[in-house]
Amino acid sequence: MNPTCSKEVFKSLLLFFNILLISNLAVENSTAQQLNPPIQNYTSFEYGAANQNWDLSINDSGIIYAANNKGLLVFNGLKWKTYNLKSGSIIRSVYAHAGKVYTGSYLEFGYWKKNTKGTFVYHSLEHLFKEIELSSEEFWGIKAYHGNIYFRSFAGLYKYDGEQIIKIESGVFTSMRLYKDRLFVAKGRDGLFILDENDRLIHFKPSEIIQNTVADIIVHNEKLVVGTKDRLYQLNEKSNQFEVVSPLINSFISKAELNKVSSLSDDILVVGTLKNGFLTWNSETGEFQTFDRTNGLQNNTILSMDAFHGNLWLGLDNGIDRVEVQSPINFYTDSFGELGTVYDMIKEDDHFFLASNTGVYYLDDNGLKLLQGAEGHSWNLTKAEEKIISNSNAATFQVFKDRVLALDKATGSFDSEISPSNDLWIGTYTGIAKLKDTGLVRYENLDFPVKTILFENERVLWAAHPYEGVYRISLSADQKKTTEIYRLPSSDSLQFFNPEIYKINNQIAVYSNSKWYRYNSFSDHLEIFEELKHLNAYRLLNTRRGNYWFINTRNNDLLYTDLKNQNLIVPSWRLEDRLVKDYENIISTSDSTFYVTLKDGFAKLNLKGLEGERKDVFIAKPFVTGFRGVEKKYELNDIPEVSFKDARLLQFDIGYPLSDSREIEYRLIGGDTVKGLLDNGDLEFQNLSYGNYELQLQPLGSKNETTESFKFTVLSPWYLSNMMKLVYVIIFILLIALIYWYNRQRLKKHRSLIEQKFEKEHKERINRLEKERLLDEIDMKRKELANTTMIAAKKNEVLMEIQGELNKDKSKMNEYRLKNIMTKINAAIKNKDEWQVFETNFNEIHEDFFKDVLAVYPGLTSKDLKLCSYLKMNLTSKEIAPLMGISVRGVEVHRYRLRKKMELDKNENLTNYLIKNF
Questions:
Q1: What is the largest CA-CA distance in the chain?
Q2: Distant-in-sequence, close-in-space partners of 596: CB < 8 Å, separation ≥ 6
Q3: What is the arrangement of strands in the sheet containing 547-552, beginning at the earlier edge strand?
């Protein structure tokens, strides 16, 4: 037979069987043991809008825009927001371009643009349709071409040049795509057209082969690909003809009904359908994979698709999904909950054995099957030559494809280990046993639970007790008995709990309490493993050819390292945080393929793919999408100034498109410095003090160029504002002036008081001196008055004596002459001039005396007043008599009468009364 012919026959047969296979896939939807890439479901409840998402568009930063039944749906990587049209219309198409987001809906076309506060505002272009007759149209597709925006409906093709809208042509237009700087447009069943420089549609003749309405157009691996509801075509540049892409793909499409096509990379083509989810096809290898509700999608109807940095975004009839199609990590998930938590696994050529908390399972293309008799918790699976051993909670089993065989039902077991002589040793709940052809052989003096077994050499093994530490056990030459068993103390007297033992670089290593130790055979002690000190808190999971898998027990990140220069970190989020805490396990099947046990299945890690990712790392740049305080929302263009009152609670909306770094570190620098990790898109600060602030956002593990910086100012409180500071300065100046004035006044008053005091003292001194002088004068006048009075009294007394003597001798003297003498004597005694002098002197000493006495006793005579004056001078009756020219008896009588006039009590002394009261 012709070799060439045989080759063609073989290809035909292979194609036939592939068609049968893909047909079965279309019916069954997925392969039982298919491993799926990470799929993130966003439900309508999560994004807060309607179920259906008719179109998707992703801008250069990675922001997702969806045309939703409720309006424009925006996802910044951390938060979803919905913006509604005033009319409430369904948005059918969306296209992000040059800082604007164009959307089309029923009889409505326009664009959304962020205002200065970070909120999208809609700008309708409805007014530009005045010259165009619209027939109940909805706009389903939008594309930018040569600076213009082209959009289509099922009734026409339109152009918006920034100023006006022009209708290019009527017709049923179903898709548009740029190819080699030309705009290709699909027009119903008429095929493809090219838009020329004059906006005329030129029929593309190779599209005549396309018999059905074009559903979508894409460019894949620099080739034009056209999809109808039942077929996929690719343009052959050499022949300038469309050819069927693949019978395999078309077989799937014919039953699932193609709706959208996308090119994820030069190799991967994605076909989205209305009935059976989507299919990925590697155009280089021919490999394909189907995705629908059975393996992770929310819905089987793909309404829209777009891709960004390896992530395929799907707008579904119910929700939005994100699929990392080319992820080096793929998952098998038991969605029914039958499998439970997987603790260990073994991969054979076409099937898996899985040890879980519900039993030992067999997994192949026919599905998952619990092995007969393997129910219960299984900890471990070990392959010893052709045997597979299961360490179970109830027994130790040998595992077959359809059943298990109990090797020991006496007790459960933790671990199985192959000795250097290829014997199988088992660590049980009650000691150590060795498997022989005749059954298990137990070592009677080993009666404690053994979680892990490790051979130092053929005659020395190590056993890890779950609670009491590690034991070093020596065996006899024939290994039939133990010769020495003792627990190793550590150098720092650490009490080991749940230790793990390994052999690293031919050294016995022990990991316990987040520290690494190694066995020192010279001191027969465990000591700090200096070479692994940097890996404290990292537990070892797998060793293969000098490379190691560790897990960070603090954050569950995986670390792949050669303990030298090579270090690869797999963050826990990449395994969807599904690792089994404290029982993490990694199984290697080759140098590049590893399997990780999970809470509800397992994951497959492609090491080469993980290493390749590091060459094309994409880390998005975080940004502030909104900034508001207690009372208002602030502009984002300039440096916002926030009132002190409004700064009681400051809220930032943070956007961070999905990238290879998922955590953002924030740092607020200013009057109050705060830092931490961002949990979601909301960042809040309370009661900031006034001053200038800078908010720095940086993805963990990124360089400085991905750091976002946002500056704002918290204004001082009203009582510390510039105006109030000016007021305070004025008040301070006024206060100083007031204090100065007050002190001046006090000083002036003090001076005045001093002056007044001085003046008063001076006056008092003068008055005192004057008073002393007056008193002296009064005393002197009193003395003069007394002397004058006494002289007058003496004179009158002498005269009266003379008068008496003359009266005695009046017979002897001339009567006329005597009378003349007596008259002169009486005149001398009663001399008015003397009285006037006395009265004048008396008034100078006792001013207003007569006036005061008359005011009280107005009936007094001048003679009474004269007597009063003499009594005031404290003169006796004897002294008064000569002054008044009467006898002492006459004075007494006069005093008696005066008392009666004054109506004085008989006990009242007249002299004292006058001295005291007048």
A1: 224
A2: 558, 575, 579, 584, 585, 586, 587, 602, 603, 604, 605
A3: 538-544, 547-552, 558-561, 567-570
Spatial distance between the Cα atoms of 334 and 297, rounded to a whole number of angstroms:
14
Q: How confident is the model at residue 271 (pLDDT cuts 50, 70, 90)?
A: very high
Residues 6+ apart with CB under 8 A from 909: none
Distance CA 210, CA 231 (A): 9
**Cβ-contact 91, 67 below 8 angstroms:** yes
For residues 405 and 397, the answer to whether their CB atoms sit within 8 Å is yes
Residue with the larger pLDDT of the pair 204 and 836: 204
Q: In the block, which residue shows the tokens 């089994």? A: 580
Q: Look up residue 624 and give its DSSP letter.
A: E
Write the pLDDT tens digit of every residue in 406-451: 988 888 999 999 888 888 899 999 889 888 776 778 887 788 899 9
Q: How far apart are CA 91 and CA 855, in angstroms?
A: 120
Radius of gyration of the chain (CA): 61
- Note whether 63 and 96 are within 8 A (CB): yes
Whether residue 8 has pLDDT greater than 50:
no
Give me the DSSP letters along 165-223: EEEEEES-EEEEEEETTEEEEEEGGG-EEEE-TTS-EEE-GGGGG--S-EEEEEEETTE
Q: What are phi and psi of 248, to 5 degrees?
A: -60, -50
Let me know: does 323 contact 300? Beta carbons within 8 Å: no
Reference 299, options 491, 603, 545, 44; nearest CA is 44
User: What distance in Å separates the CA atoms of residue 774 and residue 685, rounded to the nearest whole number?
Assistant: 91
Residue closest to 432 by CA, chosen among 398, 381, 396, 394? 396
Are the CB atoms for 135 and 153 separated by under 8 Å?
Answer: no
Instruction: Supply the angle between the helices 877-884 and 888-902 in degrees, to the nearest 10.
Output: 100
pLDDT tens string 841-885: 777 777 777 788 888 888 888 788 878 887 888 888 887 777 777
**At 230, which amino acid appears?**
D
**Structural domains of the chain in order of their starting residue, each with its CATH number:** 1-33+246-327 (no CATH), 45-171 (2.130.10.10), 623-720 (2.60.40.10)
Angle between helices 888-902 and 862-872 (to 10 degrees): 100
CA 600 to chain centre: 34
In angstroms, rounded to a whole number, what is the distance separating the alpha carbons of residues 845 and 236?
153
Would the pLDDT of 398 be above 70?
A: yes
Tell me the Ramachandran region of residue 772: left when phi exceeds 0, alpha when psi lies from -120 to 50, beta otherwise.
alpha
Closest Cα to residue 197, out of 178, 175, 180, 182? 182
H or E, element range at 500: strand 500-504
Q: Which of 117-131, 175-189, 549-563, 876-890 has the lowest mean pLDDT?
A: 876-890
CA contacts within 13 A on the Cβ side of 826:
8
d(CA 358, CA 370) in angstroms, rounded, equals 9
Q: Residue by residue, what is the 3-state secondary structure of 530-566? A: HHHHHHCCEEEEEEECCEEEEEECCCCCEEEECCCCC
Kindly report the backbone phi and psi dihedral angles of residue 159, in degrees, each rounded to the nearest multiple of 5, phi listed first: -135, 135
Q: 570: which DSSP letter?
A: E
3-state secondary structure of 808: helix
Task: Report the C-alpha gap between 227 and 216 in whole angstroms.
Answer: 5
Q: 278-282 and 342-347: which strand pairing?
A: unpaired
Strands lying side by side in the sheet with 268-273 = 258-263, 268-273, 278-282, 288-291
Q: What is the mean pLDDT of the chain?
A: 86
N-terminal to C-terminal alpha carbon distance within the chain:
175
- Pick from 256, 308, 258, 235: which is nearest to 62 by CA? 308
